[in-house]
Amino acid sequence: MLLERSAVHIALSLESQTAPVRTLFERDDNVPASLADACLLRMSELFEPCSILTLGRNFGIYRRLGRKTISLMSPCAQVRTD
To answer: What domain range includes position 47?
Structure first.
């Protein structure tokens, strides 16, 4: 497993980021976010520069730090930059 070999590191402790992740999770009623999406959004706010690799078709609707677009790497979306 990648985690066991230390090939992948989880850069977010949900325990220490509960309030900001909850805010992202609940931010917009018309833009549904999963917990996983909210965690990725929070990491994009904490680590710059950032790009998110996603297979999600609708991830491009999310914004970081209020209204900033997110650079995406996805077969379903164009790469976006701030």
So the answer is: 18-73
- How many folded domains does the chain comprise? 1
Residues 63, 82 contacting (CB under 8 angstroms): no
State the DSSP H helix or E strand holding residue 39, giving kind and residue range, or none if neither. helix 35-46
What does the CA dihedral 14, 51, 44, 34 come to, rounded to 10 degrees?
-60
Q: Are 17 and 10 in contact (CB under 8 A)?
A: no
Cis peptide before 49 (omega within 30 of 0): yes
Confidence (pTM): 0.73
Could you give phi then psi for residue 58, rounded to 5 degrees? -110, 10
φ, ψ dihedrals at 43, nearest 5°: -65, -35
At 17-70, the pLDDT tens digits run 999 988 887 876 677 788 888 898 899 999 888 888 888 877 888 888 888 988
